[in-house]
């Protein structure tokens, strides 16, 4: 594992957001959802996420997630993805979302 300096970690904008809308990304080669994530003062940002194995669109609404907010926007299967919703691969290589056990303000930064 490569080590980094604290200043490197501080460059990553990891913030809490609440999923407001989730819909299938019809143009995606691999199954994915288009998510609208409320990041408080940063506004509502769009993400394309391959998280269909464990989550339905309905159960994602209102869920708080941890997002990387300072990647450059990227076009993914016709969607302008503005944030990366974080998660971890399970033993079957399916994404489990990173989350929180208490409600947090949208836009709060990981400390």
Give the structural class: mainly beta
**CATH superfamily heading:** Nucleic acid-binding proteins
Distance between the termini: 22 Å
Query: What is the succession of H and E elements?
Result: HEEEHEEEEEE
- Architecture per CATH nomenclature, i.e. the level-2 architecture: Beta Barrel
Number of separate strands: 9
What is the fold-level CATH name, i.e. the topology? Answer: OB fold (Dihydrolipoamide Acetyltransferase, E2P)
Fraction of helical residues: under 10%
Flag low-confidence runs: none
Q: Give the strand line-up of the largest sheet.
A: 3-2-1-4-7
Q: Mean pLDDT score, rounded?
A: 96
Query: How many domains in all?
Result: 1
Main beta sheet: strand number and arrangement? 5 strands, antiparallel
InterPro entries: CsaA, NA-bd_OB-fold, tRNA-bd_dom, Tyrosine-tRNA_ligase_regulator
Pfam families: tRNA_bind
Protein name: tRNA-binding protein
GO molecular function: tRNA binding
């Amino acid at each position: 594992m490569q080590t980094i300096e604290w200043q490197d970690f501080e460059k990553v904008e990891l913030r809490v957001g609440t999923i407001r809308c989730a819909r299938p990304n019809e143009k995606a080669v691999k199954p994915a959802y288009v998510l609208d994530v409320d990041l408080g003062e940063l506004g509502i940002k769009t993400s394309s996420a391959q998280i269909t194995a464990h989550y339905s669109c309905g159960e994602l609404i209102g869920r708080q997630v941890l997002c990387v907010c300072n990647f450059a926007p990227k076009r993914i299967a016709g969607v302008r993805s503005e944030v990366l919703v974080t998660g971890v691969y399970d033993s079957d290589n399916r994404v489990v979302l990173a989350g929180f056990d208490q409600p947090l303000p949208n836009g709060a930064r990981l400390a």
